[in-house]
Amino acid sequence: xxxxxxxRCRECGRGYAVEPIHVCEWCFAPLEVVFDFDExxxxxxxxxxxxxPRSMWRYAALLPGDAEKRVDLGAGFTPLVPAPRLGAELGLxxxxxxxxxxxxxHSFKDRVVSVAxxxxxxxxxxxxxxxxxxxxxxxxxxxxxxxGLRAVVFIPNDLEKGKxxxxxxxxxxxxxxxxxxxxxxxxxxxIAGAYEWAFVNVNVRPYYAEGSKTLAFEIVEQxxxxxxxxVIAPIASxxxxxxxxxxxxxxxxxxLIDGHDARISGAQADGCSPVAVAxxxxxxxxxPVKAATIAKSLAxxxxxxxxxxxxxxxxxxxxxxxxxxxEIVDGIRxxxxxxGIFTETAGGVTIATLAKLAAQxxxxxxxxxxxxxxxxxxxxxxxxxxxxxxxxxxxxxxEAFAANLQEGA
Amino acid sequence: MSVTxxxxxxxxxxxxxxxxxxxxxxxxxxxxxxxxRQHPGIKERICDADGSIRRFVNVFVGDEDIRFLDGANTSLxxxxxxxxxxAVAGG
Lengths: 409, 91
Hints:
The complex is a heterodimer. By secondary structure, chain A is an alpha/beta fold. Chain A contains 15 helices and 13 strands. Chain A starts with a strand and ends with a helix. Chain B contains 2 helices and 5 strands.
């Protein structure tokens, strides 16, 4: 299991062996993996990482899973690009985009799934399963197909067509559940108790979640081993934000950087903003909500890691805010128009929230800011198809074109 | 009032491996007390010292999370099914 030496309860600290379990039997809090960082520190270096593959597995030393069991479609090491034109629009002088639309199934979920399925195979599972708002479904189905594992994927029955088709094409058992993601999740936690499957976001979740750290690792390496000043991420369950922080912390722990002062901020949609509301109200606890937003990939009304996401924002001096559905569409269009990246609704949430925080001075003009663009716009065409259209429709002749162009098209 | 409480895998060490327990109670709070009478020690796994349900525990009456109802004071209809479910990450 790589450098993983055990599991530990995030609340009461009780220790557990390396097994496919996810909650503390004592207090029900989530378990997390424990690494032998002394051992990792002895062998890891910037050079050893540079000599690795151009994928997230260049950081294998800091991930669970054995190399010979690896399930890898090439996730990670996605482009980190400067965004001067978007930065100029938002008044930010040093803005960067981590473009995770460039992953094999076009979202950051390939990072967590590659780890989860590697670990699942290591435990000897032959069936993998997940509850998903879409991106995870795409990724589990694809990785399972490539690894020859059986996949059982549960989704809410109102998902975008692109996400349904881009899952079904890999031929998993695809179960559309009549209800919200929270209903699907609840069903899956009961199914997980009844079947001997590796549920990537249930019983192998402690390992799965580690995959998100690679976003932080890559950002720092791609900035020449300089940590950014500020990272902004979308919030669904809240896990991504906590793992960005963890990833930055671990780079310091193993001596790859001296330390960091990165602020970490989060973005939600108004129609599903339990963490943003708790942040604004200064509350410690996240009250669940019934989700209703076009950002379906973020529509988790009962975010398991919401409490920890709040803590990360507060501890690092970051912010959490939310934006309306029209602002999400504007965010998607702004990113496309200025930087040539077409993101799904979650990325629209991130960009629109970044704009809001920048206007309020909560993201400062001179900070080196990295915004996480976590999924591809082709997955959620429905969100923007009413907002954009051809500039003109003309007969196939030069006169018609010239006449239409003069009319200001 | 008698209800069926579904016990998740991580809690079954407190029920001797049993996955469903029939409990008496007009509210979730009373049901918890009866569950504790039948399986001493289980309540402190689900509830904090002050008796409130732990942050990472979701309790559903039928299909509804009790946080959308009256919390521990949520009333229970005869024969209803109550599920205790650990929080799960996203997707």
